[in-house]
Specification:
Layout lengths: L4 E6 L4 H10 L4 E3 L7 E5 L7 H15 L3 E7 L3 E8 L2 E7 L16 E2 L2 H7 L6 H9 L11 H12 L10 H5 L13 E2 L1
Antiparallel strand pairs: 1-3, 1-4, 2-3, 2-8, 4-5, 5-6, 6-7
Length: about 190
């Protein structure tokens, strides 16, 4: 069985503002200390893998914090979805396996969406847009692609220069004590 997790990387170091936005949205979650100019939010309600719940919080955080927010959903390590919000509005979205939930869909369909230039520019790495594009377009389950969605997510965070804590980590895992190496649980803010 693969991993299931969601989280939102907010491009701000103002954790007080992030906490206030979470409280305003009446959401329970954990907030990681700032890293690489970003703050990672682990929302309890989003862990049910309901994309609309994740979208609503990412839009709210982006608008309330006045900064970009990158929401990520990993489903069974087979699907990586991201939603990029700017100014509270959806600016870009990506799905590594768009036919996954479609019984009649092509299981070999390539990833859909994802604007590598916009994503790279949002996180200040415009010169690495071609690397972002390579990560987004690589096939799943091939020698030159990614076996697991977590692997794709890990490489994407490395290229974007955002916190690696987001990879393989969600509210449920943290609550169950599955904490990534180097993470001080006591440093996580509980909302």
């Amino acid at each position: 069985m693969g991993s299931f997790y969601t989280n939102i990387t907010v491009k701000t170091t103002d954790t007080d503002r992030v906490e206030a936005a979470l409280r305003q949205a009446r959401r329970a979650g954990l907030i990681a200390p700032p890293d690489h100019g970003c703050t990672v939010v682990f929302d309890e309600a989003s862990e049910k893998q309901d994309i609309e719940v994740l979208q609503a919080l990412a839009a709210h955080l982006s608008g309330a914090c006045k900064c970009p927010a990158l929401a990520v959903l990993n489903h069974d390590d087979d699907v990586l979805v991201y939603l990029l919000y700017e100014g509270g509005e959806l600016a870009d979205e990506y799905n590594s396996a768009p036919s996954y939930f479609d019984e009649e869909g092509d299981p070999d369909a390539p990833p859909s969406g994802g604007d590598a230039k916009r994503l790279a520019a949002t996180f200040g790495v415009s010169a690495r847009a071609s690397e972002v594009e390579r990560v987004l377009r690589a096939a799943t389950g091939t020698d030159d692609g990614f076996t697991f969605a977590t692997d794709r997510h890990r490489e994407l965070t490395e290229v974007l220069g955002v916190p690696s804590l987001a990879v393989g980590c969600g509210y449920t895992y943290l609550e169950e004590g599955e904490v990534p190496d180097g993470v001080d649980v006591a440093a996580l803010r509980r909302v």
